[in-house]
Amino acid sequence: MTERIVVVGAALLDGGRLLAARRSAPPELAGRWELPGGKVEPGETPEQALERELREELGVDAEVVERVPGEWPLKAPYILHVWTVRLRPGSAEPAPLEDHDALRRLAPDEIWDVDWLDQDVAAVREVVARLRSTEAC
C-alpha cells in the first residue's frame, strides 16, 4: 500500500468570511478556486506545514486554530486535511504571491459564487456547516 501524503488546506476565517484563492498554476487548475495550503514536508507537523505554506503563498503570519473533521481524497497518494486558521495580530493582509492570481473573502451567501476545485468542494461544505453552527450559538 502506498503511503498517503497529507496536503493541508486553510479555512482562513475573518469576520465570518472565508478566504478563497484562485489558482494561476498549473495550467489544468488555473482559474479555479481553492483553500490555500500545500503538502506537508518531511519533518513537519501538518500545523507547521500550513503556517509555512500560508507565509509562502499569501505572505501572512497565521495561527492554526482547529482541524475540520474529515479528510478528502485528492489525486493518489494525496489526501486533504483542513484546519481553521486566523491571522496573528500584526500580520500582513493576504496577497497572492505564489501559484495564485486573486483572493476573495466570501461571505456565507457568496461561498458558491466561485468555481471551486472539485477536490475542495466537500471540504468547503464542511467548513460552511461549521460556520453556520457557530453562528447559531
Give a short synopsis of this structure.
This protein is an alpha+beta fold and 137 residues long. The chain has helices at residues 46-58, 118-136, and strands at 5-14, 17-23, 33-34, 37-39, 62-73, 78-87, 100-106. Strands 1, 2, 3, 4, 5, 6 and 7 form a 7-stranded mixed sheet that branches.
Keyphrases for this structure?
Nucleoside Triphosphate Pyrophosphohydrolase, alpha+beta, DNA repair, globular, single chain, seven-stranded mixed β-sheet, metal ion binding, 2 helices, 7 strands, 137 residues
Summarize the main sheet: 7 strands, mixed
CATH superfamily: Nucleoside Triphosphate Pyrophosphohydrolase
SS field, number of helical segments? 2
Q: Using only CA atoms, what is the Rg?
A: 14 Å
- H and E order: EEEEHEEEH
Description:
With 137 residues, the protein is of the alpha+beta class. It has 2 helices and 7 strands, in the order E-E-E-E-H-E-E-E-H. Strands 1, 2, 3, 4, 5, 6 and 7 form a 7-stranded mixed β-sheet that branches. A hairpin with a 2-residue loop joins strand 1 and strand 2. It starts with a strand and ends with a helix. The model has no long low-confidence stretch (mean pLDDT 92).
Can you lay out the helices and strands and say which pair or pack?
Elements: E1 5-14, E2 17-23, E3 33-34, E4 37-39, H1 46-58, E5 62-73, E6 78-87, E7 100-106, H2 118-136
